[in-house]
Amino acid sequence: MEDPPNCALCGRPIPADVPQSLHHLVPKLKGGKNGPTVLLHHICHKEIHATLSEAELARDYATPEALRAHPRLAKFIAWVSKRPPGFLSRVPSKRRARQR
């Protein structure tokens, strides 16, 4: 039996029965429609989009390494890494201050 793939953000395995999604490293709206994607736990994918705007993703966070280095995502990874691979939870809404 083949080992499950690992999440590109948290590094935990993604069993076949766990919600998962493909993340475009450059958002589709910013020209990444046919660009590289990575497989993530659905909860990890939601956290990325709750943390960063499409512009920030395209400009500064277009690699898994850059995503893992973001302070809020690093804190999330430390937290979620202690949970089982099938862990599901609501992801908080955006915490970024709205720019006016």
TrEMBL record:
The keyword Hydrolase applies. It comes from the Bacteria. GO terms for molecular function: endonuclease activity. Keywords: Endonuclease, Hydrolase, Nuclease. PANTHER family: HNH DOMAIN-CONTAINING PROTEIN, TUDOR DOMAIN-CONTAINING PROTEIN. This is HNH endonuclease. It comes from Pararhodobacter marinus. The lineage of its organism: Bacteria, Pseudomonadati, Pseudomonadota, Alphaproteobacteria, Rhodobacterales.
